[in-house]
User: Fold this.
Amino acid sequence: MLFSSVGFLFRFLPVFMLIYLIIPAKYRNIVLLVGSLIFYGVGEPSFVLLLVFSVTVNYGLSRYMFWEPRSPQQNRAKKRARRKKVALVTSLAIDFGFLFVFKYWDFAAGTVNGLAGREIVPVLMLTLPLGISFYTFQMVSYQVDCYRGTQQEPADFVLFAAYVSMFPQLIAGPIVRYDEVADKMKSRKIRIRNIENGLKLFTAGLGLKVLLANQIGTLWNTIMTAGAGNLHIAVAWLGAIAYSFQIYFDFWGYSVMAMGLGKMLGFRIPRNFDNPYISRSVSEFWRRWHMTLGRWFREYVYFPLGGSRKGKFRTIGNLFVVWAFTGLWHGADWNFLLWGLTFFVILTVEKNSYGGKIEGTKVIGHVYTLILIPVTWVIFAITDIRQLIAYLGNMLGIHRSTVMVGTQQLIRYLQEYWVLLIACILFVTPLPGKMYHKYRDRWFMVLVLLVIFWFSVHEIMVGSNNPFLYFRF
Amino acid sequence: MSKKKKTREKDKRKKQKKRDWRELIYNCPYMLAVGMTSLVMIIYSDEIGIRAVVREAETAIVQVMGMNISTQEIALEQTADQMVKDAADLENQSMREQMAEDNAGICKGENDEIQSGNELNKDVEAEENQGNTDKRVKGVTKFEIYEPQETDSRYYSDAGKVALTTEYPYSMESDSYFNDAAFLGDSRTLGISDYAGLDAADFYCDSGMTIFKLLEPEGVTYQKTGNKEDLSQVLQQKKYGKIYIMLGMNELGYGNTDMYLEQYRKVVDQIREWQPGSIIYIMANLHVSKEKNNAETEFNNININDKNAASAQLANGTDIFYLDANPLFTDEEGFLNAELTFDGVHLYAQHYDAWRQFLMEHAVEPDGQETAADANMAQQVQQENVTGQSAEQITE
Assistant:
């Protein structure tokens, strides 16, 4: 189930909230768990079993880490350390094993078969379970925290299961650490003001997703429909900018909706985006973009590898590993790996040369970032390598064939999209966020948000009634 | 005293309660606003609320019931299936025969006429000769017939047939053929406008255009100026020799195929009335790619074939023709070739050239020119026949 669907907005959410509020506080986690499983199961009826299995096995293994045999033993500490290690390695193998089979098997098999020139490894063609990349990372973070001792006592099963499967962040993050929600998991107060503000935040996120991301996405789609390789340099850049807007508002909108829902339920879900497009360097961009993912890789991959404390070469090696995996986490294809490694190159260069200086500049830093970021998004967006090269060529003004989408189409696109483009530019700045927080409690804000809510619902209805109107052929 | 105290406490409690309610309203105006409006929508809206749930439940129940029936009456249904199949086979056969007859009949009938006009004996050679030279042969739109699958959609059913390009001795024309051509359609026509290089033709098209909206006063965009035009006025004022229509993609999830056909017929009749001498081309909707094809939504090639077969019925072979460019772009299974498209629906810009080529190869001379050409032809034929006759006489 998606947040931006009628089923969620008018069926699941009201019924769930009603039960959640009426039920005594001690049953809330069970309601949250069951509700989340229903939320997941409606869209993925078979994969809900996979989720339940993963959660149960992980929980068992985490309990095993804390398990102490009754009888007095020699080498207690040593044995405990061994148990912990066994449990951690097993859980990592299972979690990443599932992720690998469902997400990366076909990619790996295709590569191996391609190299061999015949089919050695069968291609499975499995559907990717929704949200598996996100909940796997959450479970892994919990296991590692238990292993390290940052998580000092085992959580209750219901608490752990509810933490992993909590519907606000199950499908598209943010990737929450257990200690961030542990206190609220145990006991939380439902305040009417939190529900109110959570709902407002949710509406804002819904608007970002439906009214900005979905709309500007059609421009990118239109341009790609004409085909990479046929584009005038300006059209190619317009497409890259449109896609940059689309992916940002889509993801940011989803994160804001998750934050809003979390607030309604009495949690504090961490912020995932901090106006990334106003960054002055690509390093800064990654400190502001998908912050919980960056944090995960830093804490569970980069630091364990030694971070930057083991000399220049090891640092570069560690960064390489982190960015290769960051790329592949986003998708199982060569372009995602290339995308991650592009950041590896840019960040390494920045770190070792002009990074600090450029962040101090007022104009150059912004221009530099705003030129590079759309290029990286194009690498992210186009899976077919030949088309990717053609598109990047177009962005540089290089054409192998005649330009078919020229200034005439450019003018038409601008005529059609200029209002939306200006709105997108506006919402990339911190201004709307500031305005929102300043006037959140004013009466007129109620009206503004109400309009956004129903306008979004209207757009969703139009799209779901006629899925083609959403694309408009 | 104690009584007074008690009443005071009661009052306090009452006030507290009142304040609680007021605070609730002051504290969550937005929640109440969304809640109340949602409640109204849930009760009254057909799409969001109770009615939608009831409707979904009903269809679910019907499906379950249907499944029960099918399990109970498998044997019966199978025999019924067989019968239907047989009937369909028979029908197919008879249809084919009928079509063949029609085809032959048309040729024969016209030939007879001409022959009697020329006062010639029924000569096989002459007949063939005339079949080749006579431009007034009536085109025939044939259907490739297959066994339809069961579908579960309110928007379409499996027609069990694929419409093929009207069979007709088309001529090959050059770019100038399109000087007096108008193209009416949706985003794929927009693609032809943008990328096929038919600059002489007039394009009236918009993304999302449907056969239902085509002649509405708010109109479609005239691509040469970028202005919205009212087609019902344009087509009454301007005269076009050829009119190409390609619509149907945005109708896949709207109404049903019967409604679509009915509206298509209306539009074609209307255009015929406004443009009496023109050739109308009904262009087939291109199939979608395998990736895009989804049997669970309305978005699949069965639905597209259903719509295409419906609109192809309107082709009469004299001044309305059905053109199917699908063979240019689809694979053996009928899916749009994945290498030709980004979204599984639209062709990349560079492939519209093939489409243009296809249109040039499938050109029909409009009536006015035809009659002029015909006159010449008739004379020629007469002469040939005369010489033929004389030759025969000589040999005899």
